[in-house]
Each structure stands twice: as structure tokens, then as C-alpha cells.
Amino acid sequence: MARTTSTEAEASFAELFTPKLITVLREGYGLTQLRADAIAGLTVAIVALPLSMAIAIASGATPAQGLYTAIVGGFLVSALGGSRFQIGGPAGAFIVLVAATVAQHGMDGLILATFLSGLMLSAVGLLRLGTFVKFIPFPVTVGFTAGIAVIIFASQIRELFGLKLDHEPAELLEKLPALWEARHTLTPAAVAVSAGTVAVILALRRYRPGWPGMLIAVALAAAATALLGLPIATIGSKFGGIPSTLPAPQLPDLSPARVAEVLPNAVSFTLLGAIESLLSAVVADGMTGRRHRSNCELVAQGIANVGSALFGGICVTGTIARTATNVRAGAHGPVAGMLHAVFLLLFMLVAAPLASFIPLAALAGVLAVVAWNMIERHAIAALARTGWGEFAVLAATFLLTVFRDLTDAIVTGVALGAILFIHRMSRTTEVTAQTPIVPRDEPDDAHPREEYHEEAADPDIIVYRVTGALFFGAAASIGSVLDRIQDNHRALILDLSGVPFLDSTGASMIESLVRKARKRDVQVFISGARRDVRRGLLAIGLDRHTVRFAGDVDSALAALRKPRQAA
């Protein structure tokens, strides 16, 4: 086998982390492609404008921070990422974690956690661990997405109904009673604005799907609020509007004590950011037939989070809805995402004063629609039909997301999914005796006629065939069957040709079986073992002095025949 030279390794590494922007430019980029990307970028910016502000407000940040995140983070994700069509920015999935971090550590703690998360995401990508993020079970992603949707909707009830609370609890079980107690403060104008916003979005989605429904709905709500003088909260009344320029970059407080405080939050951001961004990239791949570079994408997501934090923004990740919009709008490559960030910046420079008139009830209506769209109803129904196992994983993840926290939900869901997988894999592994010790009476035509082996029919020789992965989940049950070898057998042939994988537990079980057999003076042959299976057996302590290897059962039988012929 030829050795890989250092030059080849470096080339492979460089190719693995080459941004898709470079790939697209190498393919040839002209005015036609730029025009397509400009139209797509403008379309996505129109969608991202209300969403970025709404998500930031729901997260406990300011609408300006949402725009900073979309502008800085979105530009860096597209410029440096491993996906042609990924759109980065603030995401609804982060609302729960961001709001909790702000409540625990303040805004400076959130910015520091975002900064640290960026460093971690880049490290995960550079260590090429992005592939393992794809191993998150589908029921887990469906469960935590549905749970986040419930929490997002619950967080918007206050603004949807214009309720007045001195303090809104963060926990759902405490939040709902507090909101109910404040029901007498309901503002009819807020209800009308939020309901009208939802109605306009849904109507345009049905009758004019190509129109920017969210932006039109928010613009109409802002116009109605200003013209009618409605007594409801707006961005101007609560936040004083949004600035017309980006702030100067500034490093967060990196003192060891402060870093230690927010480190668990940063880890949660990293885990969710990796999952969300790669899921979004996979969706884009499915829509376009392209393939993204997962580790390059994670490095870009990390740099984008560092950049967002430097400009006072919040967490950045790949956003599925905006990425899908980018694809449908005819984007050619990453330039569309970069232009989407430029268009958002132009909005801040030119139309920032108009944002003061946007009612919070309208943004709450936008998020209510987003929450509804996040619940994958068809996937939930499909998982319910597949059996109790997947649905139990989904339900556990959903309930822990809603009533505990997202990190515990994902960890528990993955653990349950792994246990379910181990259980099912263990049931696919079985051991059969090719020549039963006491064959049962059957009709002559019960089985097709096979080649007759005198030695195979010899009661002194027993042939066992193992099929399936021989790993720790199946080792105990398989070992109990193989241990039934009686003392009156002079030879055991263990056929492992149907074993695709063997771990140290399975190898140890085989080694123990061979040791017991040798104590009884039973000769052991292992036939059909693949190279990696044989390597595992040799590594655990088996050698040719205790066991003999054969290419197949016939070869093992032939080897057993020779001593008898010599005698």
C-alpha cells in the first residue's frame, strides 16, 4: 500500500476546508450569476429583516442586536462556509438558551458565551468532528424542535395579548399561571394587531406565495399603529428605535472567573449551533443536489459567532427557513448570502427610523407563525406509526426540552436512541448450529438438498455459524449459546463469515470460549473471519497455538480430515 505523503495530506486538508465561495469563483462567475445572487439576497433580506428583530426581542436582546447578528454573522457564514446556499443569522431554536443566559449572566455574559461558542465551533470543525454531529437520531431533532416551538409560542403570549406583567417567569410551569393572572390587563388593540399579522401572513402564503408575507404584514401593522395611534408597545417605545450604523468591535470580558461562569452556556450554544447549522446545510443539499463540507461549515459558524460577539450580536447559526428561501429564489452561490447581509446593512443606514413604528404584537405574530412551522407534524405522525421506540425518544426529548432544558433533552434523547439501536442490533445477531446435536424428525423435502459432509455429520464435530454484529449488546446472549458445547465433541468450527463487525467485548467472549474448549481438549477452528475481525481476535489474545483459522467451513473440515486419514 502506498504511503500518503505530507504534500497529499496538506492538499487534502486544504481542500477539506476550502470555502464554497472559492469553489464557486473557480468555476467561473459573471454578471448572470451576480444578478441571480442579488435577487436571491434581496429576497432573503426581506424575510430576515423582521425575523432577526423578532428573534432578538424574544431572546431578551434588542432588535438592533438581531440585525447586527444577521449582518456580521450572515456575511461571514456565507463567505467562509462549506455550503453554497447557507444563510446565517439569529435562529428561533436559540431563543430559549439565549434568554436563559441573559437572565443568568446578563448581556455581557451572553456576548462572552457567544464568543466562546465560536471558538469551540471552530475547534470542532478543525478537529473534523462535524461528521459525528450527523449521528443525532431523527426523533431527537424532531422532538427538540417541537419543544422549542412550544417555548417560543409561550414566550410570545404576553405580547400577543398585550398583557402587563411586572415580572414574567422563565419556566413554563410558572409562566402560564402568571400570564393567566394577568388576563385582566389584555389589550384589545394588541390582540387585533397580532391576529391581523398572522392572518396577512397566512393569506399571502396561500394566495401570493411569492410575496414577502412577513415583511408586508409587519409593515401594515406598523402603518396601522402609527396612523391610528394604537396604545400598544412598539420598538421605539420599548427600545428607542435602532441605530443606523454598526457599533465598533469590542472584545468581551475574558477574565478566567467570567469565562468559567458562562462556559456551560457556551457549550450548549456550541452543541445546538452545530446541529442546527448542519441540519440546515443538509436541507439545502436535498433541495439542490449539492454537497456541503460539514467541518468547513462549522469553522465558518465559529468565526461568525466570534464576529457577531465582537459587534455586540447574539448567537449565529444556519437558518433552515432563510436558507430554503435563498434556494427557491434562485441563488447561484455564497454571494447571495453575503449580499443578504449587505442589504440588511443598507436598511439600517437608510430606514432605521421607520423601525421605531413596528409594534411588538406584530413581531409576536411573526414568531407565532414561525413556531407553528417549526413543528414537523408529518414527521411526528410518521414516527408514531413506526413503533413505540422512536416515539418514546421523541416524547422524552420534547418533554425535557419544554420542562427541563435543551442540553439535557438532546443528551437524554441521544442516549435513549443509542440504547434503542443497541437493543435492535443485538436482536439481529444470532448463532445457529449447522449440524444439530439431536436433529428433529422432518420430511425429506423440508429443506433443499445440500452437499453431504461426513465430518459435518460426525457428532464429534460441531459447527456454529454467527451472523450479525458481534458487539457488547449481543455478546452475552451469543456467549450463553456457545457455552453449551459438551465435552463429547472433539472439534468446534466457529463460522464468523456472517460477522461484519466485532468489538473488544465480542472478541473477549470468543477468547473465553476458546480457552474453555481447549481445557476440554476440544480443537477450535474459526472460519470465514474478515481481516478486521481476525485482527480484533488476535489483539485480544488469541493466537495460532490456541485456535486455527480457516477461509471457510469446508477448509476447516478438510483440515480435520487429514489427521484421521493419516491415522
UniProtKB/TrEMBL annotation:
<feature type="transmembrane region" description="Helical">
    <location>
        <begin position="341"/>
        <end position="370"/>
    </location>
</feature>
<feature type="transmembrane region" description="Helical">
    <location>
        <begin position="298"/>
        <end position="321"/>
    </location>
</feature>
<dbReference type="InterPro" id="IPR001902">
    <property type="entry name" value="SLC26A/SulP_fam"/>
</dbReference>
<feature type="transmembrane region" description="Helical">
    <location>
        <begin position="38"/>
        <end position="58"/>
    </location>
</feature>
<keyword id="KW-0472">Membrane</keyword>
<feature type="transmembrane region" description="Helical">
    <location>
        <begin position="216"/>
        <end position="242"/>
    </location>
</feature>
<dbReference type="InterPro" id="IPR036513">
    <property type="entry name" value="STAS_dom_sf"/>
</dbReference>
<dbReference type="Pfam" id="PF01740">
    <property type="entry name" value="STAS"/>
</dbReference>
<feature type="transmembrane region" description="Helical">
    <location>
        <begin position="382"/>
        <end position="403"/>
    </location>
</feature>
<feature type="region of interest" description="Disordered">
    <location>
        <begin position="433"/>
        <end position="452"/>
    </location>
</feature>
<dbReference type="Pfam" id="PF00916">
    <property type="entry name" value="Sulfate_transp"/>
</dbReference>
<keyword id="KW-1133">Transmembrane helix</keyword>
<feature type="transmembrane region" description="Helical">
    <location>
        <begin position="409"/>
        <end position="426"/>
    </location>
</feature>
<feature type="domain" description="STAS">
    <location>
        <begin position="451"/>
        <end position="560"/>
    </location>
</feature>
<feature type="compositionally biased region" description="Basic and acidic residues">
    <location>
        <begin position="439"/>
        <end position="452"/>
    </location>
</feature>
<protein>
    <submittedName>
        <fullName>SulP family sulfate permease</fullName>
    </submittedName>
</protein>
<feature type="transmembrane region" description="Helical">
    <location>
        <begin position="110"/>
        <end position="129"/>
    </location>
</feature>
<keyword id="KW-0812">Transmembrane</keyword>
<feature type="transmembrane region" description="Helical">
    <location>
        <begin position="64"/>
        <end position="80"/>
    </location>
</feature>
<feature type="transmembrane region" description="Helical">
    <location>
        <begin position="186"/>
        <end position="204"/>
    </location>
</feature>
<dbReference type="InterPro" id="IPR002645">
    <property type="entry name" value="STAS_dom"/>
</dbReference>
<dbReference type="GO" id="GO:0016020">
    <property type="term" value="C:membrane"/>
</dbReference>
<dbReference type="InterPro" id="IPR011547">
    <property type="entry name" value="SLC26A/SulP_dom"/>
</dbReference>
<dbReference type="GO" id="GO:0055085">
    <property type="term" value="P:transmembrane transport"/>
</dbReference>
<feature type="transmembrane region" description="Helical">
    <location>
        <begin position="136"/>
        <end position="157"/>
    </location>
</feature>
<feature type="transmembrane region" description="Helical">
    <location>
        <begin position="262"/>
        <end position="286"/>
    </location>
</feature>
